[in-house]
Every structure is written in C-alpha cells, then in structure tokens.
Design goal:
Blueprint (H helix, E strand, L loop, with lengths): L6 H5 L13 H23 L1 H18 L11 H21 L1 H11 L7 H18 L6 H10 L7 H12 L7 H4 L8 H33 L4
C-alpha cells in the first residue's frame, strides 16, 4: 500500500518490442516465463483484492478494540511522521501476508530464471529477495508504540518504531528495467503482455485509491496525523 504494494504492478509488467535476431534462447525463455508468472500473479491479486481489504478491516477493528484514539491530542511533528510511516508498514505487512501464497509462487518462478546479461539476472535475484522480505514483514505493535510516545511527552518515538521504519526502508523491491527485457519479448507473447498490462492498470487503480483510504482509516482510528 502507498507504494510498496503498488510496486508489484511495476515489476510484473514489461513493454513489447520484437525480439532481437541475436537473442539467446535462454533470454527469450526466461523473459516469457517472467511475463507468464507476472500475469498469473496479477490476476490472482486483482481477483482477490477483497481478501486484502477484509484483512485490513480486521486490523482496523483490532485497533478500535485495543487502542482507539490512542494518539488523541498528539502534536503534528517529524516524530509523528515516523509513526505514520509505521502505519503504512502495517498496511504493507497485512497486504503481503494476505497475498503471501501468490507472491511466493511468483518468487519461485523467478528464482531459477537467468539471462545472458548478468545485470538482469542480478536484478531478478534482488527482486525475489525483496519480495520474500516483504512477505515476512511483521505487523508492528502500533498501540504500544503510540502509548510509549505519549508516555514520553511526545518528545521522541520509541526505539521500536525507529527500528521498524529502518527495516522497512531497507527492503528493496525494484523492478527489472523494461528496457533490459524488451529485446527478448517475442511477438507471440503480444496478447499475454497486453493482458498483463491491463491487469497492472487495474491493480494500480485499486492500490492507489484503496491504499490511501486504508491509510487514512487507520490514522483516524489511532488519532494520528498524516
């Protein structure tokens, strides 16, 4: 949500360009497998978006039960921005946990792929690692962290918030640049790429609107400013 989940749409799509005459079979095969896995993952995520929303609704209800308006009266400050980022992390953790099976299947398909250009293979490995780390990201103890911030007179957020934010920030989920893959996309995959890109557009629209709404909902429940 708010960026990290949306990046799935970016990493799972590639543009279409004719495969170069000198393209190695391995490059063509790996790129086809990448696009096919992308389509499967995006289709599953878009089809089951209501599942993500249901889990976020449960998280919001948990905050309503355990610490409603725990941040009421807190000042808007740089320290509070760290807690707001932690809320975003809670959304990402919930989204990736809900779609863990889909993400893991994509990672499993991605890991064995290799290209004659080692830069593409390195980026694929790094992408797989980042996605795995996101599925393992825990939901933070926001109730406890906001209470600790309040108990300290709102001077500084607790160390747990700082640690969580640094951990999330350190996870890299970066797409394989389209320009690197375009030469290996076969004309026969034109329909598959087009369908994948349509799904990516649906995903981005869902993520942008619902992600912002969900973030605002949790901040309101906790009585935190953006």
């Amino acid at each position: 949500m708010l960026g990290r989940l949306a990046i799935l749409a970016a990493v799972l799509t590639v543009g279409l360009a004719p495969a170069g005459a000198s393209a190695a079979p391995r490059d063509v095969a790996s790129t086809h497998a990448y696009v096919a896995a992308a389509y499967t993952a995006l289709h599953a995520v878009v089809s089951k978006w209501s599942s993500v929303e249901a889990e976020i609704g449960k998280l919001n209800q948990r905050f309503h039960t355990e610490c409603p308006a725990v941040g009421a009266g807190s000042p808007q400050s740089e320290e509070e921005q760290k807690l707001s980022y932690e809320v975003a992390g809670a959304l990402w953790a919930t989204g990736y946990r809900t779609e863990a099976k889909v993400v893991r299947a994509f990672v499993k398909a991605l890991k064995p792929l290799s290209w004659s250009n080692p830069a593409i293979t390195r980026r694929a490995r790094k992408l797989a690692k980042g996605l795995q780390e996101m599925t393992a990201l825990p939901v933070p103890d926001l109730c406890g962290d906001v209470r600790a911030w309040a108990a300290g007179g709102y001077r500084a957020v607790p160390a747990t918030t700082e640690q969580y934010d640094r951990h999330v920030e350190a996870i890299e989920v970066k797409e394989i640049p389209r320009g690197l893959l375009n030469p290996y996309v076969q004309p026969a995959d034109k329909g598959l790429v087009a369908r994948t890109e349509r799904l990516a557009t649906q995903f981005e629209e869902l993520e942008f609107k619902r992600g912002q709404d969900d973030w605002n909902m949790l901040l309101e429940t906790l009585a935190l400013n953006q």
